[in-house]
């Protein structure tokens, strides 16, 4: 909750966000006071809106006297005002039937198509994002007496690091023993859990050569994994239906990004803390192309293990309560549809 907002300011801000999401038009003080029974004058509403603008929650487009919410306003809205809308029973039934009816190998693709259809945004799905993989083994492959290649093996593939160089020569036998000692301590740990501090703690006294630890940390920290994941995208044209992106020049960076598999994988990466649903608003997205978008993603599971991520890309102006519920339900339904019969 934003501590600098009193009850009246919060109420007015919520009204402005809700009205703007529905109309895509800047909201003026007179519209707020006449459409909603606030029990205060239009002048009072105008003063409160001016204060909200000064506090960074509203901004005024050049061509209008009305105000629109800022990214900061949407973040406060999502964190402390969001009311998730229940997905209607008929829609839930239809979504489940659609996924179950698809051929098994096309279930994920169908999930993307369904999510794009029910949200009217671009939908993306990627099975097993790199940060959800678990480590199986670490190999130190000798290249010379003073050099070794660091290789991390996960349950989804093999990822090579750069060459680690040592001040003193190390025999292949010592490298093998060191590989086994480190592997015993990190086997089974999710890649996303191996932050720098946790990695130091996990490896512990097996870290006989700090250069090895540094290289493993670099692999984990930078996520430099060549993830051979098939990415499914649907509904890219929905971006152009949004008033914010009717100017093709403004939409082009987003459309281009959604065609690049490595970009989609990056924006789908689960957030910190293992939250099943993640909302990134505007500049919270690391990719420059997504700075005018909100990305809502949810992890789907198979046999209680993360199996991938599904989500939508749309403008920051959206019905967050409805979209969050739909994304979460699609993730749940996709996990169920992928379970063995």
From TrEMBL:
It holds the Pfam family HrcA. InterPro entries: GAF-like_dom_sf, HrcA, HrcA_C, WH-like_DNA-bd_sf, WH_DNA-bd_sf, WHTH_transcript_rep_HrcA_IDD. Negative regulator of class I heat shock genes (grpE-dnaK-dnaJ and groELS operons). Prevents heat-shock induction of these operons. One of its GO terms (biological process) is negative regulation of DNA-templated transcription. This is Heat-inducible transcription repressor HrcA. Residues 105-324 form the Heat-inducible transcription repressor HrcA C-terminal domain. Belongs to the HrcA family. GO terms for molecular function: DNA binding. Keywords: Repressor, Stress response, Transcription, Transcription regulation. It comes from Candidatus Segetimicrobium genomatis.
